[in-house]
Amino acid sequence: MKVSKKTDYALRALFAIAEQKNSSISIRELSESTDVPRRFLENIMLEMNKAGWVSSIPGRYGGYVLAKASNEITLGEVIRHFEGMIAMISCVSVSNYEPCSQESKCYFRRVFLNIRNLTAQILDKTTIASCLMQEPIKKEDIFKEEFVGGLGI
After folding, report:
1. What predicted TM-score, i.e. pTM, was given to this entire model?
2. Does the residue 7 lie in any domain?
3. Of 73, 52, 54, 72, which Cα lies nearest the Cα of 64?
4. Using CB atoms within 10 A of its CB, is residue 91 exposed (0-12), middle (13-18) or buried (19+)?
5. Are 44 and 13 in contact (CB under 8 A)?
6. What's 106's domain CATH number?
7. Which residue in 79, 82, 80 sits closest to 94, CA to CA?
8. Do the record's keywords include DNA-binding (predicted)?
9. Which candidate, 33, 116, 36, 41, places its Cα nearest to that of 79?
10. Residues 75, 22, 81, CA angle at the centre, nearest 5°?
11. Per-residue pLDDT tens over the stretch 84-135
12. Domain region containing 28
């Protein structure tokens, strides 16, 4: 599964807002701190406002704040909102299921169903707050010997 730029940008914005605790952050500051183009970010913020994750505070000193507690927003709900599905292939998706002519004799479909289920379980348990309690991943963590050579890619 690979998430789109829009989902990536939405998650960046949610985390940046959550880091502010109870103070608001302007769209300009949000755009600069997350490295997201402002015009694109404005549309994402409108969507997240409608979804009930953020609230906008009008005025000169306004900006955005979380509308829900950071421990009530899961990565799963955000990704589903912007991506439509978590499954890697549509024949195992609940929200975007598309039948396949090979379903009755497909041997690898179960693997993708298991991946979907495990991914959904992890994303649905992971909140903005729980992520903020961890240290960011370092580049060397990604390239650890036990994960290279196809095992973790």
Report:
1. 0.88
2. yes
3. 54
4. middle
5. yes
6. 1.10.10.10
7. 80
8. yes
9. 116
10. 25
11. 888 889 999 988 899 999 999 999 999 999 999 999 999 999 999 999 999 9
12. 1-136
